[in-house]
Amino acid sequence: MKILFKNGDTREVSFEEQEGKKAFWHTSAHILAQAVKRLYPDTKCAIGPAIENGFYYDFEFEFPFSEESLPAIEEEMKKIIKKSFSLQVYGMDREKALTYMAERGEDYKLELIQSLSTDEEISFYRQGEYSEFCAGPHIANTCQVKAFKLLSVAGAYWRGDEKKKMLTRIYGISFPESAQLEEYMDRMEEARRRDHRKLGKELGIFTLMEEGAGFPFFLPKGMVLKNLLLDYWRGLHIREGYQEISTPIMLDKRLWETSGHWEHYRENMYTTVVDDTEYAVKPMSCPGGMLVYKMEPHSYRDLPLRLAELGLVHRNEKSGQLHGLMRVRAFTQDDAHIFMTQEQIIEEIQNVVRLIDEVYTKFGFAYHVELSTRPENSMGSDEDWELATKALKDAMDSLKIPYSVNEGDGAFYGPKLDFHLKDSIGRTWQCGTIQLDFQLPQRFEAEYTGADGEKHRPIMIHRVILGSIERFIGILIEHYAGKFPVWISPVQVKLLPVSEKYISYANEASEALKAAGIRVEMDSRNEKLGYKIREARLDKVPYMVIVGEKEQENHTVSVRGRDETCGNQDMGEMSLKELIKIIRDML
């Protein structure tokens, strides 16, 4: 596949490469805009970028636009693709570009060009009669788009500013082959079936209320699941030599000025006033961890010092970006901050990498690693950034773990390793991260006494494994389609008495299972057994245990497994002792 750059150069790139996908989907957005302008000439075009999966374009229509109009646009896009328009790139000086857009009433393009530097030449891409102000790159011909689908319509504020006009955003996806589109649509259908918002409500895990947009409510079964995850997390961290702390939810504004968050992260922070002093609700826990470190003097013999915190943090996310548990305004982050000497950096990074690998393997996730380097909005010296980046590379290289480089996407205080896990239907999620920080210890003047008796500055690792606990639960719901492994299933056994006559025996069985540490729920309703079995299947519990006349006489239970992960669907009649052993062996 040939792609065309704004300087006129071309290069062969595979669609499987990130650069190829971006150019392909960017061109698909232009095809969408061309089709819209053909059908609705008075429509104003805003922006149309490639995104992680596909593309979108924002428009200002003169009429109420709905998804009913998408088939007509798709038909027009097919005509454009069939014409096999070759893309051409050309430059235009700023004044001519402004005149060009003004004459066509393209107010949003006009604003974008006005925001550019005055001496910058403006690049345009043309396909047929349609010209688009754009930096590119694009594929060389529209005919390479063999399969596409317009997926949905949403509202989007111009430039993400709630004070500006609401535009219509059309999302789409496209591929070089029809089979790729079919596979993608099948995955999307499966994703809809697994939607954590739907399953979370049906399974009694969590809910969202109008009274708290972005602030999830965990229900009883959800709290069982959450606490099981946290117990597992705590056990690992005790084993690995971490000490757990808890720091306040809000702290004096001056702390956030010292840490640099006030300058670099202010727009995402909630604030309040206490006793005429401005406070910020913490968006992350690291400044509090710094205060704990500084409470007492430290020697090199104390290091590495590993402080872990399940910190409740709040971030001021825009309403349009909220999405179930995946994007919320309040969440628990499994933070840890490791204070160490420069000589300990490599080993500590490797220890965290091994821990992340252990956790993701436990849940059945494959993953890949990305090294993110210094962003434009950053603080610290070039020397510190180079040293920190090299340390992350050296740690990964010595472990022989491959990684890709994401230029300019590091934290404002240091480079980082991001761990992108892959779920059961092939989607990736960024959860774990290891951030190497030379800056906060300097800004807070943290010290330790070295073997030479002199004061030295510690180095700091910020790391999370699960990331946001809430988001991780959302990922688990979709990964397992609600069928949690036995060890984290909120209910492990559903007891189903055949009729009311056997409730007393079912209660005995329930108490015996509970005494063995097994989570049990009983359906004592006066309903037919077939109905109870169907309901239990919807609840996705690992084991259904049926008790009736035969089981009562034999002091046994009849067991059905949920699926092959729990055993055979009909596991037959057995003693409670046998059932308890089966479940314990699954933990």
Would you write up a description of this structure?
The protein has 587 residues and is of the alpha+beta class. The chain has 18 helices and 31 strands. The protein has an eight-stranded mixed β-sheet with strand order 14-18-19-26-23-22-20-21. Strands 3, 4, 5, 10 and 11 form a five-stranded antiparallel β-sheet that branches. It has a five-stranded mixed β-sheet with strand order 28-27-29-30-31, sandwiched between helices. Helix 3 packs antiparallel against helix 4, helix 6 packs across helix 14 and helix 11 crosses helix 12. The two termini are 50 Å apart. The model has no long low-confidence stretch (mean pLDDT 93).
Beta-strand content estimate: 25-35%
Structural class: alpha+beta
Average predicted local confidence, pLDDT: 93
| Order of strands in the sheet with most strands | 14-18-19-26-23-22-20-21
Label the overall shape.
Answer: globular
Describe the protein's topology.
Elements: E1 2-4, E2 10-12, H1 18-39, E3 44-45, E4 50-51, E5 54-60, H2 70-82, E6 88-92, H3 94-103, H4 107-114, E7 122-127, E8 130-133, E9 138-139, E10 147-157, E11 166-175, H5 178-193, H6 196-202, E12 206-207, E13 217-218, H7 220-239, E14 243-244, E15 250-252, H8 253-259, H9 261-264, E16 271-274, E17 277-281, H10 286-293, E18 305-314, E19 330-340, H11 345-362, E20 366-372, H12 382-399, E21 403-406, E22 416-422, E23 428-437, H13 439-443, E24 448-449, E25 455-456, E26 459-468, H14 469-479, E27 493-497, H15 503-515, E28 520-522, H16 529-539, E29 543-547, H17 549-554, E30 557-561, E31 572-574, H18 576-586
Helix pairs in contact: 1-2, 3-4, 6-14, 11-12
